[in-house]
From TrEMBL:
Signal peptide: none annotated. Residues 2-86 form the Histidine kinase/HSP90-like ATPase domain. GO terms for molecular function: protein serine/threonine kinase activity. It comes from Streptomyces gancidicus BKS 13-15. InterPro entries: Anti-sigma-factor_SerPK, HATPase_C_sf, HATPase_dom. Keywords: Kinase, Serine/threonine-protein kinase, Transferase. This is Regulatory protein. PANTHER family: ANTI-SIGMA-F FACTOR RSBW (PTHR35526:SF3), ANTI-SIGMA-F FACTOR RSBW-RELATED (PTHR35526). The keyword Transferase applies.
Length: 93
């Protein structure tokens, strides 16, 4: 679900004509899955996730899901014109 939300956000909000986004999955020590989605809209950073008590809307809750499901998430800017939205999941051993 995290991959789907981050990829959908990149496709909808981070799209530039003729360019796509990059998805990277990596295992980080000691046992963490890192999900990264990079797009070419570094000027369009994700907005803070809506809270559950906000007025209902058709969209805008994807990052709230990411926030709830991931152990950590954030945004890394650059290199220009890119940005990377990432999420990490701690894997049980």
């Amino acid at each position: 679900m995290i991959v789907a939300e981050l990829a959908a956000n990149a496709a909808v909000h981070g799209r530039v004509q003729g360019r796509s986004f990059r998805l990277a999955l990596s295992l980080v020590e000691p046992a963490t899955l890192r999900i990264e989605v990079t797009d070419t809209r570094g000027d369009h950073l994700p907005m803070q996730a809506r809270s559950a008590g906000d007025e209902p809307a058709e969209s805008g809750y994807g990052l709230l899901l990411v926030e709830e499901l991931a152990d950590r998430w954030g945004v890394r800017e650059g290199p220009a014109p890119c940005k990377t939205v990432w999420a990490e999941l701690d894997l049980g051993q």
